[in-house]
Every structure is written in structure tokens, then in C-alpha cells.
Amino acid sequence: MPKVVALPRSFSRSEEAKEMLLQAGFEVIWNTEGRPLKEAELIEVIKGADALITGIDEVTAKVLEAGAPTLKVVAKYGVGYDNIDVEAASRLGIPVTITPGAPTRSVAELALTLMLSVARHIPQMNAGVREGGWGRTTGSELGDKVLGVVGLGAIGAEVVKRAVAFDMKVIAYDAFVRQDMIDKYGVQYVTLQELYAQSDFITLHAPAIPETVGMINKESLAQMKKSAILINTARGDLVVEQDLYEALSSGQIAGAGLDTFIQEPPATLDIVGLPNVVTSPHVGSNTVEAGYRMAKMAAEEAIRAVNGEAPKFPVKAPVSK
Ligand SMILES: NC(=O)C1=CN([C@@H]2O[C@H](COP(=O)(O)OP(=O)(O)OC[C@H]3O[C@@H](n4cnc5c(N)ncnc54)[C@H](O)[C@@H]3O)[C@@H](O)[C@H]2O)C=CC1
Ligand SMILES: O=C(O)CCC(=O)C(=O)O
């Protein structure tokens, strides 16, 4: 009986994907920890598995080597695969797949939620009212503001669509220019320096790769407006957190909305405790709808691999942290 290890915390909510795996004759090993697994835990659980469905667990070279004798696929439940050592997988002949498009709308909606929450101080006022207060703070509108999108791929494009509906002007930085974004939404492509200098809101939607790790640092923060609000639903690694903490504390920028952190949960509460910061615990794709789509697509990849079929959405380029 083929064995699939299904680790994403919300995978088991998807009855359809569960049923698909059972119908395909899989023995399914679930993650009962309620959190992503560490390398040592994964090394134990991966042994003898034919397929691994993973969220943001530590799929290192050692994990892949432990699974290599039987492992036929690592199916990412989601799209950001920086938690998987793709080079090692490739060396061991194990395909890595993702679920493109499945989390897109959910992450875009969260990015907008964080923009609005920071601009209108919603969590802070909510906490005050619940304590019997009536502290009304003055927020700012999104309308007529400049939104800078770093990484205009699937999620970035959905954010643009929504931002335009809020009457925002959108500028973007990406190596690939999408003519449809220019034609349909009036997006203007600019350099990173121009994006930092001109944006009222900056939203990150690029993958964590060597070129982007640490891109939000002392130097880039110094180029931003004092009124700028930074939104990160991409990966914590894009940001030098100490530099962001200092920029937010000193008024170098006005606020931040953060869904992702270098370490999750964050190593210190410094940033998340600031009054001008709104956070969420890496839940960009954590909706019922995105969960169903990601689970189904990842389950299909597991089944394809066990049947000896080619993966549908393999990761092409090796990516390192
Ligand atoms: N918070 C959450 O729960 C989730 C976070 N994510 C993150 O969002 C990221 C983006 O996802 P998608 O839009 O689906 O991916 P995508 O592959 O469709 O888009 C990524 C875009 O980033 C661009 N890019 C690559 N290198 C860049 C660089 N150096 N500077 C600027 N742009 C660059 C690419 O050209 C591409 O247009 C994922 O890599 C993942 O890290 C994804 C899903 C859920
Ligand atoms: O598995 C998760 O909980 C998060 C997924 C994610 O961040 C991604 O799709 O890149």
C-alpha cells in the first residue's frame, strides 16, 4: 500500500482531497502536532513514504535523503517552496511540485486586509473598545495613494486588481513586464529605488530567493516616505527584521502589516509589539477555499507520482534560502 505523509495543518479539512487519496489506495499519515515539523521530526516520519505533501515544514537535504529510497514526489501545498531543498531533491531524482494559483486570491485579500487595518488602526481600536474605551484614532484612505508592488506575479496581480478598485495608483517592480497589467490597470513599471521613494504602501509578493532575501533593510527603508506602510505576506526572509523594527520605532516609516516572519512564531516580540504594526500568523492562504484548492492539487500530484505519471506543476529552478 503506498504511503503519503500529509503535513499541512489544514489539509485534513479537505474531504475531497482525503477521499482522493483513500480511493487511490494510500495509507495517509497525518501531522498531529498542529504545527509545521522540524527536520529531525520529518526524518522519522518520511521513512518508507511514497509521497510527501508539505506546507512550510523543514524539508532539508537530510530529510530528502532519509526518504529517497521510496519517495516519488514532494508536493508543496502552496506556492512558496523556499522550505524545500530543491537542489537536493533534484540530485536525488525527487520532483518537487507546487499548486500555482490555488492560494492567490486568499493572499491578495489578506494583503488588502492588512493595508486597510494598518491605515485605519483597526486592531488597536478594536482592543480599546473591548476594554470599555472609545479611543478614536484618525486613519488614512487608500484612495489616490500610490501602491508599490514588489513581484507582479499571480498574487501581485490580484492585489493590483483590488487596489485599482480602491482608486489607488499602482507602480511595480519585477524583472518580467506584464503588458496586461499596464493595459488593464495602468500599472507603471519602475526601478526598485523609484518604487521605494514614490510609494505610500509597499506590498511584497516576490519569492524568497538570494536576490530578494534581506531586500528590505536599513538602506531601502531610508529611501521610503515617512508615511509609508509596508505589507509583507511573502516571506519573512525578505526583511531584515531588526532594521524594520528600528525604522518603525523611529518613525522612519509609518507602519507595517506582517503575515510572515524569519522565524515563525517570531523569535522576539519586538516588532509585533509595536503600536504601528498589525500582524497575522502566516495565514495568507489559510482560508477554506484556498485550502480545498491546494489540498486537491497536491493530492493529485501525489497520485500522479505513485502511478508513475509526470508531475503537472514541477518546480523548475532550484531555489535557496
Ligand atoms: N503568506 C502566505 O500564506 C503565502 C505567501 N506566499 C508567498 O507569495 C510569493 C508569491 O507567490 P505567487 O504570486 O503565487 O508567485 P509567482 O511566481 O506567481 O510570482 C512571483 C513574482 O515575483 C517575481 N520576482 C522574482 N524575483 C524577483 C525579484 N528579485 N524582485 C522582484 N520580483 C521578483 C517573479 O518574476 C514573479 O512575477 C510566494 O513565493 C510565497 O513566498 C504564497 C502563498 C501563501
Ligand atoms: O502551508 C502554509 O501554511 C503556507 C503556504 C505558503 O506560504 C505558500 O503557499 O507559499
TrEMBL record:
Residues 14-315 form the D-isomer specific 2-hydroxyacid dehydrogenase catalytic domain. Residues 112-284 form the D-isomer specific 2-hydroxyacid dehydrogenase NAD-binding domain. InterPro entries: D-2-hydroxyacid_DH, D-isomer_2_OHA_DH_cat_dom, D-isomer_DH_CS, D-isomer_DH_CS1, D-isomer_DH_NAD-bd, NAD(P)-bd_dom_sf. One of its GO terms (molecular function) is oxidoreductase activity, acting on the CH-OH group of donors, NAD or NADP as acceptor. GO terms for biological process: amino acid biosynthetic process. Gene3D superfamilies: NAD(P)-binding Rossmann-like Domain. It catalyses: (R)-2-hydroxyglutarate + NAD(+) = 2-oxoglutarate + NADH + H(+). Pfam families: 2-Hacid_dh, 2-Hacid_dh_C. Transmembrane segments: none annotated. Keywords: Amino-acid biosynthesis, NAD, Oxidoreductase. CDD domains: PGDH_like_2. Coiled coil: none annotated. Its EC number is 1.1.1.399. It is an enzyme of class 1 (oxidoreductase). The keyword Amino-acid biosynthesis applies. Belongs to the D-isomer specific 2-hydroxyacid dehydrogenase family. Catalyzes the reversible oxidation of 3-phospho-D-glycerate to 3-phosphonooxypyruvate, the first step of the phosphorylated L-serine biosynthesis pathway. Also catalyzes the reversible oxidation of 2-hydroxyglutarate to 2-oxoglutarate. PANTHER family: D-ISOMER SPECIFIC 2-HYDROXYACID DEHYDROGENASE FAMILY PROTEIN (AFU_ORTHOLOGUE AFUA_6G10090). This is 2-oxoglutarate reductase.
